[in-house]
Write a structure and sequence with these properties.
By secondary structure, this protein is mostly helical. It folds into 2 domains: 11-61, Homeodomain-like (Arc Repressor Mutant, subunit A, Orthogonal Bundle), CATH 1.10.10; 74-195, Tetracycline Repressor, domain 2, CATH 1.10.357.10. 68% of the residues lie in helices and 0% in strands. It has helices spanning 16-34, 41-48, 52-58, 62-73, 86-101, 106-115, 120-147, 158-161, 163-175, 180-195.
Length: 197
Protein backbone atom coordinates (compact mmCIF):
# COMPACT_ATOMS: atom_id res chain seq x y z
CA UNK A 1 0.00 0.00 0.00
CA UNK A 2 1.32 3.45 -0.84
CA UNK A 3 0.94 6.75 0.98
CA UNK A 4 -0.72 9.83 -0.47
CA UNK A 5 2.61 11.41 -1.46
CA UNK A 6 4.39 8.30 -2.71
CA UNK A 7 4.47 6.64 -6.15
CA UNK A 8 3.73 2.98 -6.78
CA UNK A 9 6.62 2.08 -9.12
CA UNK A 10 5.05 -1.26 -9.96
CA UNK A 11 2.68 0.65 -12.22
CA UNK A 12 5.09 3.32 -13.48
CA UNK A 13 4.81 3.36 -17.28
CA UNK A 14 7.85 3.36 -19.45
CA UNK A 15 7.65 5.24 -22.70
CA UNK A 16 9.60 6.10 -25.81
CA UNK A 17 13.15 4.84 -26.16
CA UNK A 18 13.21 3.11 -22.77
CA UNK A 19 10.16 1.00 -23.61
CA UNK A 20 11.37 0.30 -27.18
CA UNK A 21 14.76 -0.81 -25.91
CA UNK A 22 13.18 -3.15 -23.35
CA UNK A 23 10.98 -4.72 -26.05
CA UNK A 24 13.88 -5.16 -28.48
CA UNK A 25 16.09 -6.72 -25.79
CA UNK A 26 13.24 -9.06 -24.82
CA UNK A 27 12.83 -10.02 -28.48
CA UNK A 28 16.52 -10.91 -28.73
CA UNK A 29 16.31 -12.99 -25.55
CA UNK A 30 13.28 -14.84 -26.92
CA UNK A 31 15.02 -15.47 -30.23
CA UNK A 32 17.98 -17.00 -28.40
CA UNK A 33 15.68 -19.21 -26.33
CA UNK A 34 12.98 -20.33 -28.76
CA UNK A 35 14.07 -19.13 -32.22
CA UNK A 36 11.99 -17.25 -34.73
CA UNK A 37 9.43 -20.03 -35.20
CA UNK A 38 8.68 -20.05 -31.48
CA UNK A 39 8.64 -16.28 -31.04
CA UNK A 40 5.30 -15.02 -29.67
CA UNK A 41 4.38 -11.38 -29.11
CA UNK A 42 2.75 -12.33 -25.79
CA UNK A 43 5.99 -13.81 -24.47
CA UNK A 44 7.99 -10.78 -25.65
CA UNK A 45 5.49 -8.51 -23.88
CA UNK A 46 5.74 -10.49 -20.65
CA UNK A 47 9.53 -10.52 -20.73
CA UNK A 48 9.69 -6.77 -21.46
CA UNK A 49 6.97 -6.04 -18.86
CA UNK A 50 5.00 -4.28 -21.60
CA UNK A 51 1.50 -4.64 -23.00
CA UNK A 52 0.89 -6.54 -26.20
CA UNK A 53 -0.85 -3.43 -27.50
CA UNK A 54 2.32 -1.36 -27.10
CA UNK A 55 4.17 -3.90 -29.22
CA UNK A 56 1.54 -4.23 -31.95
CA UNK A 57 1.23 -0.44 -32.26
CA UNK A 58 4.91 -0.22 -33.24
CA UNK A 59 5.35 -3.61 -34.89
CA UNK A 60 2.18 -5.04 -36.43
CA UNK A 61 4.24 -7.89 -37.94
CA UNK A 62 6.67 -10.18 -36.16
CA UNK A 63 9.22 -9.89 -38.99
CA UNK A 64 9.51 -6.11 -38.53
CA UNK A 65 9.96 -6.49 -34.77
CA UNK A 66 12.76 -9.00 -35.34
CA UNK A 67 14.45 -6.80 -37.96
CA UNK A 68 14.42 -3.86 -35.53
CA UNK A 69 15.79 -6.10 -32.76
CA UNK A 70 18.65 -7.16 -35.03
CA UNK A 71 19.44 -3.55 -35.88
CA UNK A 72 19.32 -2.70 -32.17
CA UNK A 73 21.80 -5.47 -31.39
CA UNK A 74 24.29 -4.88 -34.19
CA UNK A 75 27.40 -2.74 -33.72
CA UNK A 76 26.87 0.66 -35.33
CA UNK A 77 27.96 0.87 -38.95
CA UNK A 78 30.70 3.36 -39.63
CA UNK A 79 30.85 5.39 -42.81
CA UNK A 80 31.64 3.51 -46.01
CA UNK A 81 35.44 3.30 -46.31
CA UNK A 82 37.05 5.53 -48.96
CA UNK A 83 40.79 4.94 -48.74
CA UNK A 84 41.58 5.39 -52.43
CA UNK A 85 42.12 1.63 -52.84
CA UNK A 86 39.27 -0.67 -53.89
CA UNK A 87 40.85 -3.63 -52.06
CA UNK A 88 41.17 -1.72 -48.79
CA UNK A 89 37.61 -0.40 -49.11
CA UNK A 90 36.21 -3.89 -49.80
CA UNK A 91 38.07 -5.22 -46.77
CA UNK A 92 36.61 -2.41 -44.66
CA UNK A 93 33.03 -3.10 -45.79
CA UNK A 94 33.26 -6.87 -45.34
CA UNK A 95 34.96 -6.50 -41.96
CA UNK A 96 32.01 -4.40 -40.80
CA UNK A 97 29.64 -7.15 -41.92
CA UNK A 98 31.77 -9.81 -40.19
CA UNK A 99 31.74 -7.74 -36.99
CA UNK A 100 27.94 -7.66 -37.10
CA UNK A 101 27.67 -11.40 -37.62
CA UNK A 102 30.28 -12.07 -34.91
CA UNK A 103 28.45 -9.79 -32.43
CA UNK A 104 26.49 -11.13 -29.41
CA UNK A 105 23.39 -11.22 -31.65
CA UNK A 106 25.06 -13.88 -33.81
CA UNK A 107 23.18 -16.84 -32.33
CA UNK A 108 19.84 -15.23 -33.10
CA UNK A 109 21.00 -14.22 -36.58
CA UNK A 110 21.95 -17.77 -37.52
CA UNK A 111 18.50 -19.02 -36.58
CA UNK A 112 16.86 -16.24 -38.55
CA UNK A 113 18.84 -17.09 -41.67
CA UNK A 114 17.36 -20.58 -41.64
CA UNK A 115 13.84 -19.28 -40.97
CA UNK A 116 13.87 -16.95 -44.00
CA UNK A 117 13.37 -20.02 -46.20
CA UNK A 118 9.94 -20.62 -44.63
CA UNK A 119 8.84 -17.04 -43.96
CA UNK A 120 8.62 -14.63 -46.92
CA UNK A 121 7.85 -11.65 -44.66
CA UNK A 122 11.01 -12.24 -42.66
CA UNK A 123 13.06 -12.69 -45.84
CA UNK A 124 11.71 -9.42 -47.21
CA UNK A 125 12.47 -7.53 -43.98
CA UNK A 126 16.03 -8.86 -43.78
CA UNK A 127 16.69 -8.27 -47.47
CA UNK A 128 15.45 -4.67 -47.39
CA UNK A 129 17.05 -3.75 -44.07
CA UNK A 130 20.39 -5.57 -44.21
CA UNK A 131 21.24 -7.32 -47.49
CA UNK A 132 20.29 -4.64 -50.04
CA UNK A 133 22.08 -1.76 -48.23
CA UNK A 134 25.28 -3.84 -48.02
CA UNK A 135 25.17 -4.65 -51.73
CA UNK A 136 24.52 -0.98 -52.60
CA UNK A 137 27.46 0.02 -50.42
CA UNK A 138 29.74 -2.43 -52.21
CA UNK A 139 28.58 -1.24 -55.62
CA UNK A 140 29.52 2.28 -54.50
CA UNK A 141 32.99 1.07 -53.51
CA UNK A 142 33.45 -0.71 -56.84
CA UNK A 143 32.13 2.28 -58.81
CA UNK A 144 34.78 4.50 -57.21
CA UNK A 145 37.35 1.82 -58.05
CA UNK A 146 36.19 1.80 -61.68
CA UNK A 147 36.61 5.59 -61.86
CA UNK A 148 40.24 5.10 -60.73
CA UNK A 149 40.82 2.33 -63.27
CA UNK A 150 41.03 -0.46 -60.67
CA UNK A 151 37.74 -2.17 -61.55
CA UNK A 152 36.41 -3.17 -64.96
CA UNK A 153 33.08 -1.39 -65.61
CA UNK A 154 31.31 -4.63 -66.58
CA UNK A 155 31.86 -5.87 -62.98
CA UNK A 156 29.53 -3.21 -61.56
CA UNK A 157 26.57 -5.55 -61.06
CA UNK A 158 24.49 -6.50 -58.03
CA UNK A 159 25.33 -10.17 -58.63
CA UNK A 160 29.08 -9.59 -58.36
CA UNK A 161 28.67 -7.17 -55.44
CA UNK A 162 26.64 -9.80 -53.55
CA UNK A 163 29.34 -12.50 -53.74
CA UNK A 164 31.46 -11.28 -50.81
CA UNK A 165 28.54 -10.94 -48.36
CA UNK A 166 27.07 -14.27 -49.51
CA UNK A 167 30.36 -16.08 -48.84
CA UNK A 168 30.60 -14.44 -45.40
CA UNK A 169 27.06 -15.56 -44.52
CA UNK A 170 27.78 -19.11 -45.70
CA UNK A 171 30.97 -19.29 -43.59
CA UNK A 172 29.08 -17.89 -40.59
CA UNK A 173 26.27 -20.45 -40.91
CA UNK A 174 28.72 -23.36 -41.03
CA UNK A 175 31.46 -22.21 -38.64
CA UNK A 176 29.62 -19.83 -36.27
CA UNK A 177 32.23 -17.07 -36.55
CA UNK A 178 34.25 -15.27 -39.20
CA UNK A 179 37.96 -14.78 -38.52
CA UNK A 180 39.69 -11.92 -40.31
CA UNK A 181 41.72 -14.31 -42.47
CA UNK A 182 38.43 -15.45 -44.07
CA UNK A 183 37.51 -11.86 -44.96
CA UNK A 184 40.96 -11.38 -46.53
CA UNK A 185 40.69 -14.67 -48.48
CA UNK A 186 37.26 -13.72 -49.85
CA UNK A 187 38.52 -10.34 -51.03
CA UNK A 188 41.88 -11.52 -52.41
CA UNK A 189 40.95 -14.93 -53.81
CA UNK A 190 37.41 -14.31 -55.04
CA UNK A 191 36.27 -10.70 -55.31
CA UNK A 192 39.42 -8.97 -56.58
CA UNK A 193 40.04 -11.49 -59.40
CA UNK A 194 36.39 -11.05 -60.48
CA UNK A 195 36.43 -7.25 -60.61
CA UNK A 196 40.01 -6.35 -61.49
CA UNK A 197 40.43 -4.18 -64.59
Amino acid sequence: MTGAGSVDHRHARRRGEVLCSAILEATLDELREVGYAGLRMQRVAARARASKGSIYRRWPRRAELVADAMEHAFPRRSQTPDTGSVRADLLGCLRQLADRLNSPAGEAIRGLMAETIRDPDLMQAIRVRFIDPTISELIGVMTRGAARGEVRPSALTRRIASIGPALLREHFLIHHCIPDRVVIEIVDDVVMPLIRA
